[in-house]
Please model this.
Amino acid sequence: MIDSHGTSGTVPTGGETCDGFREDLARFVDGELHGEDCRRFEQHLESCTECQREVGIFQVLKGELQAMGMKQPEMPGGSVWDDVNRKVARPTGWIFTIIGFIMYLSYAVYTFITSDGNLFEKLTIGLLVVGFVVLLATVAWERIVDYRTDPYKGVEK
Model:
């Protein structure tokens, strides 16, 4: 039987095929193959030039990726405090900040409206503030949409 590499897939020792060892190539290169499995794989490598070539390719790729300085993704879980911070403390802080901002803004608007001053000045300042808030809101909205649809947001340098 011919495999995807154009070889017969058979190994002279033990009658095993390369297909059984190809699944262990990456584990072997990464040093995750232990005990009897590692010894069997090394014995297979002594007699199989196709698997030797593939191990060499994997080792070169691994070396090039490490040379690029790519970070390994962090495993999910973290500490208990990270979970508390993410689920309780941070949202609570945002809620208090938003409520405080709304209260302060309400007081500022009330003071602005009830103060003595020229109607033209109040309208001019009001339009400037509303225009600035609209621009800020549209930029913030675009950033949120870009963040949600960014296919590379989980990739770290």
Notes: Helices lie at 19-22, 25-29, 35-47, 49-67, 80-114, 119-149.
